[in-house]
Amino acid sequence: MGRFDGRVAVVTGGARGIGFGCAQRFADEGAKVAVIDLDESAAAAAAARLGEGHLGIGCDVSVAVSVDAAIERVLGDLGGIHILVNNAGITRDNLLFKMTEEDWDLVMGVHLKGAFLMTKAAQKHFVAQKYGKIVNLSSVSALGNRGQANYAAAKMGVQGFTRTLGIELGPYGINANAIAPGFIATEMTDATAARLGVPVDEFRARNAERNPVRRVGFPEDIAATAAFLCSDEASYITGQTLYVDGGAKLVS
Known about the structure:
Blueprint: E1 8-12, H1 17-28, E2 32-37, H2 40-50, E3 55-58, H3 64-78, E4 83-86, H4 101-129, E5 132-137, H5 149-169, E6 174-181, H6 187-196, H7 200-208, H8 219-229, E7 241-244, H9 248-251
Parallel strand pairs: 1-2, 1-4, 2-3, 4-5, 5-6, 6-7
Helix pairs in contact: 1-8, 3-4, 4-5
């Protein structure tokens, strides 16, 4: 018997990377999973990889009508919603003097507005059933990172958003927490290596040396944390941000 038997989990940005890692973990522990991604075909393919009974939905999390339609489809096809993981994200890195208004707006729209819209759409169902689990993805970059003024601001905003959700939604049986990953080996970080002209293995090795455990993280590390925070074992934890970074924050 799985921890999430009878539960429906929604994971945004779930077609790859950390999002798919979370989707896989919830599915493995008994949940029916709705994989939400901007690319509907990628979402459908990811849901199929999870096995039967899961759902892939195309959705732009920065657009309210798209979000509302996605949640209604989850309710109609999977019969409810109990867990929301706000993972969808993009990067548009640049130094401040080169950063465009579009770069700023796109990152804020997906990370921060997306988390707001998805949570707003889901919470009314959570409130009605007096039960819900929300995990928002922040980042160690929230503490500041050269070339990521937009991303850092959005990810720190996610932490403030999460704290406020803890205050507002706690009385209704809803837990809201955030995870701030350190370096995680994904397609996104591999793309950063390519952009810098550094071989992926070397890029990962450099980052492994920057934390006390001397390895990079993987989507499974974040998925394990999300599964705990969304379990009933964590029902007394809310409004918190957990840094999952191999201890990098300790030595930075």
